[in-house]
Amino acid sequence: MCFNMSHNYYATIYTSNVNNAGTDDDVYIQLIGTQGTEGDWYLDYDTNNDFEQGYIDTYILEAQKYIGPIKEILLYVKPTNKKSPDWRVDFIDIFTIYNGELSSQRFNVNTWIKSSDDNENYYLIDQYSTKSNNKTKVSSTTKVNKYGHGYKR
């Protein structure tokens, strides 16, 4: 008998509602839990303009397994030769259901995220602080299995 042990995490990303806060660059996320790491997910709606000023975008992140409560989030942006490379994020909410219980965690970002070709300009966010430029290399990219809707606050 074969069991699918995948586990879904839900990421809701709040783009700041200040001038030029949105981005058209490629956004990636990795989750670091108490029991492992999953990602990197490329966050993109094929039919929607993600990460616009004042928008809230929600994604389903299909992990290979449950990695426990999330300790940190690795968030980074890669340029796509468009005119809005910097992105300002207020916060990210992570939700999951495990053993019938809903858990949610808020990660305050409150900073501008700049794009970088070499993955060295990224942001490692825990529930208490935001760190940048730790020069951690990231693994290969997986396009996120996403549902939901981005909308303006």
In CATH, the topology is named Lipoxygenase-1
What is the succession of H and E elements?
Answer: EEEEEEEEEEE
Instruction: Please tell me the total number of domains.
Output: 1
CATH architecture: Sandwich
- Contiguous low-pLDDT stretches (5 residues minimum) are 133-153
Residue share in helices? Answer: under 10%
Distance between the termini: 46 Å
Strand content: over 45%
Radius of gyration, CA atoms, in whole angstroms: 15 Å
Average pLDDT, to the nearest integer? 80
What is the name of the CATH superfamily?
A: PLAT/LH2 domain
* CATH class category label: Mainly Beta
Strand order of the largest sheet: 9-8-5-2-3-10
Helix/strand structural class: mainly beta
Quaternary structure classification: single chain
Largest sheet: 6 strands, mixed
